[in-house]
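go over whats below:
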Amino acid sequence: MQNKTEFNGLLLIDKQADITSFGVISRLRALTGIKKIGHCGTLDPFATGMLPVLFGRYTKLARYLEAADRTYYVEFVLGAATDTLDKTGKIVDLVDATELQQRVESGELDRTLQDIVQSDLTGEIEQIPPMYSAIKIAGKPLYKYARDGQKIIRQARKIKIYQVELSKITMQDEQWICAATISCSKGTYIRTWIDDLGRKAKCYAYAKSLSRQKCGNLELGQSSITLAELFQKKEEFASDQSKMRSEIKQKYFYPIEKALSDFPQYHLNLTEAEKVIYGQKFELNNFNKIDSASLIQLLYNNKLLAIVSLNKSNQVQYQRVLADKV
């Protein structure tokens, strides 16, 4: 029997800067009293934007949301490189300021950046993860090695950059700034992409600000909410976690079925739904999307019960079951 207090859902957090993704989870645990929470796709502490957060049984679906493509908006400083590849680090390389100004004002650097993006930094490329990242080597995050002054050999990874829109270079607060909107695959480090661009263009560059705009079908501004807004509600409810959970469930949870809309849906009848609950195999009748679908949503009364695949006989193969009663 499903616990009446069980709290399952998807919350789209618009993450602020200067907090880790795990820090977001910790604050949501304190806010709701729910322990089973997970996020989909780590954002750097200095980064902002879309951070999908799953509660309860929906944490089983993290792997599907994490696999989605992403879109970022990044502003970067030209003329210097840092050890963290962003504004939080120490400058490790510089170019001559007069030469940089001449390249910018002549338009040459704008053209060079555009050419490099198109020729070297779009499509399937290889990328070496930065030392300041959460990737674990021998059970220890790379950033901890970096803080200890150790440099670890990292294997290059294949990623995909689908599209890049690059702005013109402008002067802001005595810095030459460029911006880019980048659509890419999971696992892309935008900081590394910016550093690679700067080094290839012989001008150096580091990320000044970074915002994740999209994660799969999820887009910033569509039902997203900040921690500050949620904690303002906490004050209204006098820290009553039960009322807070009810408010989030009624007003802020995003339909998981829409988040997984790349997976075709099959609407179950009652007999089929009961078979799902008990993990019994059955055939999907009149389902004609098997050729284009590797995974399928099974819904009953418009509620997601399970994620399945099909065998050659159209029998369901359970991947994730999300309910124990109809």
Observations:
- The chain has a mean pLDDT of 92.
- The longest strand covers residues 205-215.
- Residues 263-321 form a domain with the Archaeosine Trna-guanine Transglycosylase; Chain: A, domain 4 fold (CATH 2.30.130.10).
- DSSP finds ten helices and 18 strands in the chain.
